[in-house]
Inverse folding.
């Protein structure tokens, strides 16, 4: 059995920055209530590490960031790496909260582009996932921003003016390409500003270049869009089988038995400790033929 460690892996720079900001906020404000509006990144192990620092997470499936703010009445509020809308910022200020923005610079760049285009009277087709916090934050910037989740959504749009096409930074290269091509057919004069972040792009490219792989294991939270996209990219790249696992606890001998070549990658919000433990377990199995399930997961610290 051959184990291929797909590079890069570990946190992207946007996640590193968000974690550094969160940790510094707690350290620099002893005794103050620090709340996080949503998950800092979509990885439960990272959230658990932040909670150990004393950060209170305010998250509920189906609730928008604007709605979640109703549950924070005092102290410091940290905005996650996914970015935030102007309406959420304004409401936070009106509530008297101290704001700390941990938005990823790539997301901020997209926001700046979208706001500038809308200010000139143009319309924006924003390709993203419905309900994802990054999409929510961007679409909330202006009523001229139209969320496009699939090619079918384009049919429901009326005539638009000076169209800009852009996207969520963690989308699949394959999915965004298909929707962009459909949008260009409907709006041939549209400008395309593809905003898939470099960390996402490099990881997806690396998976697409894999050859003769029996199994691709993606280590990442099931709520992580970039982790899910890596799995889908693997399937589209003719890899025989692809798994998304939170940690080595989810790995079973039946999934890897008789596999000759296994590749391991991870989402950009996955702690490297989790991925390395999976790789070490696979290498041990390859060398001994005996599957040893680790007694516990190596939980990351900040």
């Amino acid at each position: 059995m051959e184990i291929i460690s797909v590079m890069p892996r570990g946190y992207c720079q946007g996640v590193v920055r968000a974690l550094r900001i969160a940790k510094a906020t707690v350290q620099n404000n002893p005794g103050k209530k620090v709340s996080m509006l949503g998950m800092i990144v979509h990885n439960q192990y990272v959230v658990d590490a932040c909670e150990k620092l004393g950060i209170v997470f305010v998250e509920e499936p189906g609730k928008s960031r604007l709605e979640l703010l109703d549950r924070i009445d005092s102290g410091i509020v940290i905005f996650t790496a996914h970015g935030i809308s102007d309406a959420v910022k304004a409401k936070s200020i009106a509530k008297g909260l101290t704001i700390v923005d941990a938005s990823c610079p790539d997301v901020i760049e997209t926001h700046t582009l979208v706001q500038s285009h809308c200010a000139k009277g143009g319309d924006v087709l924003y390709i993203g996932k419905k309900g994802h916090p990054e999409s929510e934050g961007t679409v909330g910037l202006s009523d001229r921003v139209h969320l496009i989740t699939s090619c079918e959504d384009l049919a429901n749009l009326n005539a638009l003016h000076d169209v800009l096409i852009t996207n969520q930074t963690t989308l699949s290269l394959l999915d965004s390409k298909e929707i962009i091509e459909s949008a260009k057919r409907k709006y041939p004069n549209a400008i395309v500003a593809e905003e898939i972040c470099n960390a996402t792009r490099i990881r997806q490219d690396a998976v697409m270049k894999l050859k003769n792989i029996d199994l691709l294991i993606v280590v990442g939270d099931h709520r992580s869009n970039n982790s899910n996209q890596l799995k889908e990219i693997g399937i589209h790249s003719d890899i025989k089988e692809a798994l998304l696992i939170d940690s080595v606890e989810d790995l079973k001998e039946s999934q890897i038995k008789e596999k000759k070549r296994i590749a391991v990658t991870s989402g950009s919000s996955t702690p490297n400790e989790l991925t390395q433990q999976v790789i070490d377990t696979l290498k041990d199995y390859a060398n001994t033929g005996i599957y040893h399930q680790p007694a516990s997961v190596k939980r990351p610290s900040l």
Observations:
- The radius of gyration is 21 Å.
- The chain has three domains: 2-11+199-288, 13-104, 106-194.
- The chain has a mean pLDDT of 94.
- Residues 2-11+199-288 form a domain with the Cobalt-precorrin-4 Transmethylase; domain 1 fold (CATH 3.40.1010.20).
